[in-house]
Specification:
With 289 residues, the chain is an alpha+beta fold. The chain contains six helices and 14 strands. The model has no long low-confidence stretch (mean pLDDT 96).
């Protein structure tokens, strides 16, 4: 079991005045059987005229705000404390049956249908299906499917920031062979869905460590993303294609959905004559003794 203090600060700076700003966030970790969330605080500056929280369609905590005061800078700060007690999946159950048997059992769970189909950022085109067929072998267990996906991403793709955007598609990733965690999560989800399994996109945080002897820099952590596949015997099993491993108690789940479009950290609409803006994000995930 691990405890963390999490702070996520998003700052927009505009070169002209903004008269009104509407925003929707997914910045508060999601409570669940392996995560308890306390001391939640959402701060918006300038002070919002409206600020309210609700649970979205996918069961995530979401906050809506509206700032009506004229401003040149908007800052949204989310703070919370999280206790994570996440055990590794039962290897025997995960390896008990061929993945085709797991897929057949999903037909009896209609609530999972949307996680087995294409979604706006997870297209199941011919090239993707061909890649998935090369990775996901017939007759192997779901445990082996996950292992093979992790191996394939590590072998075939390079982690490289700046060569993609949030709008980069799975098809473009297959062509460029480079991207970041969001794209690798989309790729894994797409491969699993292409063979009829249920998979979802997970956003959150991962505790990071500075080099030995170097103090941890404030704001040096970042949002992270990974994939999750559904097992009828175990439920959702999370794995991290970017770091080639199963998810453990160093990971903090913020939100889950069909793809990134369902769970962006912050999105909104502004009313302004500004020609440009600058975005900065700082994330700190600090262990609590």
């Amino acid at each position: 079991m691990r405890r963390y203090a999490v702070q996520h600060v998003t700052t927009y700076t505009y070169d002209g005045p903004v008269t009104t700003s509407f925003g929707r966030t997914h910045l508060v970790p999601r409570p669940g059987p392996d995560q308890q969330v306390t001391n939640v605080e959402i701060l918006v500056a300038p002070e919002p005229a409206e600020l309210r929280e609700h649970t979205d369609y996918f069961g995530n905590r979401s906050t809506y705000f509206c700032v009506r005061e004229e401003h040149h800078e908007l800052q949204v700060t989310a703070r919370s404390e999280v206790r994570v007690d996440r055990s590794r999946p039962d290897a025997e159950k995960l390896a008990a049956a061929p993945w085709e048997d797991e897929r057949a059992a999903l037909d009896a769970v209609p609530t999972l249908t949307e996680y087995r189909l294409t979604s706006p950022r997870v297209a199941l085109d011919t090239d993707l299906r061909r890649y998935a067929r090369d990775v996901i072998r017939p007759g192997v267990s779901l445990e082996t499917v996950i292992e093979d996906l992790l191996t394939a991403v590590a072998r075939d793709f390079t982690y490289r920031s700046g060569v993609t955007t949030v709008d980069t598609s799975v098809a473009e990733l297959l062509d460029r062979r480079a991207g970041v965690c969001q794209h690798f999560a989309h790729l894994a989800v797409a491969c699993l869905r292409s063979v009829g399994l249920a998979a979802r996109y997970v956003s959150g945080y991962l505790e990071t460590f500075p080099p030995p002897g170097v103090p941890k820099l404030q704001g040096a952590d970042a949002s992270h993303a990974w994939a999750s596949v559904y097992s009828p015997t175990l439920g959702w099993v999370d794995f991290d294609p970017t770091n080639n491993q199963l998810v453990d108690d160093r990971y903090i789940v913020v939100a889950t959905g069909r793809d990134y479009g369902d769970v962006p950290p912050l999105k909104g609409v502004i009313m302004t004559s500004a020609a440009s803006s600058e975005l900065t994000v700082g994330v700190d995930v600090t262990p609590i003794d």
